[in-house]
Each structure stands twice: as C-alpha cells, then as structure tokens.
Amino acid sequence: MRGAVIHAPGDVRFETLDDPKILHPTDAVIRTAVTCVCGSDLWPWRGLEPIGDAHPMGHEYVGFVEEVGSEVTAVKPGQFVVGSFATSDNTCANCRNGFPSNCLHREFMSTCQADYVRIPNAQGTLVATDEVPGEELWPGLLSVSDVMGTGWWAADAAEVKPGSTAVVVGDGAVGLCAVIAAKEMGAERIIAMSRHESRQKLAREFGATDIVTERGDEGIARIKDLTDGIGADSVLECVGTAQAMQQALHSARPGGNVGFVGVPHDVAIDGQELFFSHVGLRGGPAPVRRYLPDLIERVVTGRIEPGKVFDLTLPLDQVAEGYKTMDERRAIKALLKP
Ligand SMILES: [Zn+2]
Q: What is the 21 CA–ligand 1 centroid distance (Å)?
C-alpha cells in the first residue's frame, strides 16, 4: 500500500509502505474511505514540533473493515466504520467515567493518511454505521473522528446551555465545528472570532450570530461590548496559542466556563488571575468515542453538516499539496481520497 511519510519540515512524501497486519487479537485493519490533513499535522510540517526519524502521518479516518482480530466482535468485514483519533478499549475505569481519550490502553492513531490502517483496540474504538453511507456523507463522518468530536467537546467542556452566550475562539475546522456544537446545545448567541471572510461565512451558516474580527485586548473589549460588559457564559478555545487562551479566559464572565481543545503551545496560566476570575477551565484531547453514536446519527440524518469544513479535495497521492495549501491558509481543511 501507499501512505504519507514526513521526513523533515515541509517534506511529506507519498511512499510505498508495508501493508498493515493484525498484530494483536484486539486489532482491526480498515481500507480507508477518506482521510484528511489536520491543523495539528502542521506543527511538525512547520518545524515547530520535533520530527525525529521519518514516520507516517494522519489520525483521522473512516473506512471499510477488511479484517478483524480474534477478540473483535463489535464490527465485521465490509462494514463502514468511524473511530476516534485516540483508541480506547471502552471498558477501563477512565472509559467508564466518560474519558476514553484517556483510556488506560490508549494508543494515538498516527498512520491514517494511507490506503489501509491498523486500528488498535478496535472492539472499543470503532463504531459501524447501520448501513454503508452514501459518499456524500463520508466527509461529515470523517470530521466526527476528530474535528467535529473536538468541537463538541469544546462546547461540552465549556458547559454550553440552552439560551446561553458562547464565544468561539479560532476559525479553523475545530472552531467552525465548535459553532455547530454550540448551536446544537442550544446557545442563543454564538460569537465567532474570525478574521477571514470565507470562514466567517461558514461560521454564520453553522449558526454564529455575531462575528468579532479583533484579536487580543481589542477582541476581549468587543466581546465585553456584546455581553453587557460581563463576558460570555461559555468560551470555546480552539487554537492552543497563548494569545487565544488569554482571549478565552478574559472573554468568560465570572462563573462562566472555558473549554480548551487546541493543543497548547507555550500557554501559561496565571494562578492568581484564574483564582480571582471565577472562571472554570477544562480541556484536553476530546473524548470522541463517547460522542460517536450521537454525532454519527446527527450527520447521517443531515441534522448537521460538518463535512463543509473540507473546502479542498485531493487524491491521496497529493497529500503534500494538502499540507502546503493548509499551511498557507488557502484551504480550511483538505480531504484526501485514496
Ligand atoms: Zn479504556
């Protein structure tokens, strides 16, 4: 088979690789239906995260089950499946407590930009759709494996409630999906912070009621203007930079909550400031597996259309172009078709 391998910053190649095999009785092998490039894949691409030895890339996937290990009974060959970027057994204490992305047997997926993928912990990780969905639903289902699940987590962690005001910091694919989540959870006012016209348009389509283009102190001031000087009930931080986190913490009202789902890079939080703010803070890798059945249902029934975050489709062998286009912000998110 063939798949993407990163060798150095800016150097992703589509190469011939060994076909994945069942290594453990709990594994499955799937044939990729569609996969994609994640914003977080851009950190090593940009040289902002060490790469070490050349290695495969990709953690978002939907596909057809090819083969299962002897202990996998939940899915069978031929089924269309969705899984999380973090695998989980769905039985350990952390899974039972609702945090499968902190499963005691967790393995992060990292080889998904390829024709075939081995899924560890397949029994707990994979969820099959009732029937093979039409191709038009594949992008939406793919988004559920990471960005839509992560956007949902941002809203869940920030405790978005019916009638509330939510602020979304970040207009990447996760931020846009977070707008969908806030809307689905009943937020009455959804303020998206975005400076890019095409992304603002999609944010509005997904349910944003207001757009704030300012950043930093000016952005915080705008949010205060829009919330009677108090701040928002919920703030969904979907970037992971120091500036985005500051913006999020200062945009929440006393007693409000910040859900932070952007992988933090150089983020430091002032304890005194947090203490006196009365703002609640929760984040981490999204417990996507917990949300899968519900989000799959919402996508299959057409209630939500997170697949719209893919504004570029490329053949899988042009995966490097996907990185480049996203790095240059010419695309929100690149869909890759084997
Ligand atoms: Zn577990």
A: 23
